[in-house]
Write a structure and sequence with these properties.
- Keywords: Coiled coil.
- GO terms for molecular function: structural constituent of nuclear pore.
- The chain is mainly alpha-helical and 163 residues long.
- The longest helix is centred in the last third of the chain and has 82 residues.
- The two termini are 39 Å apart.
- It has one domain.
- 92% of the residues lie in helices and 0% in strands.
- The protein is rod-shaped, with a radius of gyration of 36 Å.
Length: 163
């Protein structure tokens, strides 16, 4: 019975450890995914602005319609077309890297979720075992108490008969 209680405690701690570990891992991955998504949006916005400026700069070079406000500001600061193009390429590469990282994190998150789903039956089985052992312990404790009460009654009867 003490061994069963020990086993139940061990199984409880194992279940809690798995829950905690998976919960922390999932939360960590979700946090990373959120961070990467935010970075991705920032890079996409920067890329969009750079494309607008580059487009405006091309129009300036060919004496096409007036530049937008941001393009005018960049042109006034003396940024060359080659600098803009270099920045554009750099941002494009950064965007590809960010997307790749986001996909990797999503794959990891899905993998952990599948692993946790795969362990659900084992966890449920542990819970059933724990419930079974708890019920068995309760039954045994009840029987022990009944036997003690009967023993005490028999001892009282024996003592009374001796006197």
């Amino acid at each position: 019975s003490e061994q069963r209680a020990s086993r139940i405690t061990q199984l409880d701690s194992y279940v809690e450890e798995i829950k905690t570990s998976m919960g922390d891992t999932i939360a960590n991955l979700e946090s990373k995914l959120s961070s990467q998504t935010e970075k991705l949006h920032l890079v996409e916005e920067k890329l969009r602005r750079t494309e607008e400026v580059l487009d405006a700069e091309l129009h300036k070079e060919t004496d096409l319609p007036k530049l937008t406000d941001s393009s005018s500001m960049i042109a006034a600061n003396g940024i060359s077309l080659s600098t803009l193009y270099s920045e554009y390429n750099h941002l494009k590469k950064q965007l590809v890297v960010e997307r790749s990282q986001k996909e990797k994190i999503q794959v990891q998150l899905e993998s952990f979720i599948h692993e946790l789903d795969a362990r659900k039956p084992a966890i449920a089985n542990y819970r059933e075992q724990i419930q079974f052992y708890e019920n068995s312990v309760k039954e045994l404790v009840g029987k022990v108490e009944t036997i003690r009460a009967e023993k005490a009654e028999v001892e009282r009867d024996a003592k009374r008969l001796r006197n």
